[in-house]
């Protein structure tokens, strides 16, 4: 059983469907992953730029 399944069954969904809950959770996880990826890409670009300036 995954954490998402445990979380969904352990909380009161306050009238929303399980599908809606899972959609919200997946969107939050995806956006966090995207943000982390974008920040890592920005850091890599800054490092490359800094390396070029030193040459």
Automatic annotation (TrEMBL):
It comes from the Bacteria. This is Uncharacterized protein. It comes from Bradyrhizobium brasilense. The lineage of its organism: Bacteria, Pseudomonadati, Pseudomonadota, Alphaproteobacteria, Hyphomicrobiales.
């Amino acid at each position: 059983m995954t954490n998402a399944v445990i979380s969904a069954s352990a909380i009161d969904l306050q009238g929303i469907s399980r599908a809606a809950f899972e959609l919200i959770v997946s969107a939050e996880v995806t956006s966090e992953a995207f943000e982390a990826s974008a920040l890592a890409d920005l850091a890599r670009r800054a490092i490359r730029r800094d390396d070029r300036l030193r040459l």
